[in-house]
Amino acid sequence: MELNDNVFYTPSEFAKLRNCSVPTALSIYNLKNFPSENFGKEKVALGSAIREWYKIKRERGEN
After folding, report:
1. Tens-place pLDDT, residues 2-55
2. The pTM is what?
3. Angle at 60 between CA 6 and CA 13, to 5 degrees
4. Which alpha helices (H) appear in the chain, and where do they start and end?
5. Around Cβ 52, how many Cβ atoms within 10 Å?
6. Which of 7, 42, 44, 59 is least enclosed by beta carbons within 10 angstroms?
């Protein structure tokens, strides 16, 4: 699976991309600075926003 800029990803799809568990993906989606948004009852994040989020350097423990 590859991250596409113009696609919205659910936490379960993000977990497959990152090769992590769904609970770990959900904890990332719930971070204050992660670019997720609510879509109905599920959170989603745009691929390009995820890519930009990863470009920003963060200190450990920073949300």
Report:
1. 999 999 999 999 999 999 999 999 999 999 999 999 999 999 999 999 999 999
2. 0.85
3. 30
4. 11-18, 22-29, 47-55
5. 12
6. 59
How many domains does the chain contain in total?
1
User: To the nearest 10°, the Cα dihedral for 51, 62, 9, 40?
Assistant: -140
- Residue found by looking up tokens 């350097």 in the block: 57
What residues make up the domain containing 34? 8-55
What pLDDT score does 59 carry? Answer: 66
- Beta-bridged to residue 43, according to DSSP, are 38
Give domain status of residue 61, yes or no. Answer: no
- Structure tokens given for 19: 């090769």
In a domain, 63, yes or no: no
Any domain includes 27? yes
> pLDDT-based confidence at 1, cuts 50/70/90?
confident
